[in-house]
Amino acid sequence: MHRILRSIAVFSVFAGAISLGAQTANDILARHVTAVGGKDVISQVKSISMETTTHAGENDIPGTMVILDGVASRTEMAINGAVVVQCFTAKGGWMVNPMAGITVPTPMPDDQYLAGKSQIYVGGDLHDYAALGNKLELLSKDANTYTVKLTTKDNIESTYVFDAATYLVKSIARKGKFQNQDVIVTTNLSDYRKTDIGLVVPFAFSVDFGGQFSLSVTVNKAEINKAVDPDICAMPKASPPPVAGKSAPN
Known about the structure:
Elements: H1 2-21, H2 25-35, H3 39-44, E1 47-56, E2 59-68, E3 72-79, E4 82-89, E5 93-97, E6 102-107, H4 110-116, E7 135-141, E8 145-151, E9 157-163, E10 169-178, E11 181-194, E12 200-209, E13 213-224
Antiparallel strand pairs: 1-2, 1-13, 2-3, 3-4, 4-5, 5-6, 7-8, 8-9, 9-10, 10-11, 11-12, 12-13
């Protein structure tokens, strides 16, 4: 009997090793989709609206984040009386950042837009990666994590690290800029919670800009499928210049 039990134990370990070895990027993604609610739940999500607090140094900055799935996203923060806005749409992006001297709505540089446009999708560029023209590759795996590289059709590369126990995303890293310098921007996600519709989303994340600067964000409230006017993501038109001889309206 002892020999039989030992043989069963050895076979179980061996079978487990085979299962782990057969794990592919698509297998990991399928388990991830299940972990965040499943395809049926994800397909029901048309918008996500969040109220946030960004912690940068000693400052707590209130803000909002809105995603209209496949259409647009808008992030807004109020810093020392100035409003910082960043919008992505399916066709382009724009921003307002008085802290950087950008006081009027200004089109985003192409490289910044391409690096961030996946924000218009509820699952980023991951969930429907093939339909979006993206490619997925398993880079490494160990007892605790799976590391997967996603390459978009625009050749933007992102490295996703999944928790091997939960299949939730632990971190995302991709190239970015900080003060006009090329850096690796790493976002760490945590405090996953299930929303009323069944979608699981992170309520906390931190962002590291190549070790030069970091901040963290707390999601105070998340609402799924709240009615959102898509025009909030359209870039406002610049005010026309004053006509000579006419005074500005009061």
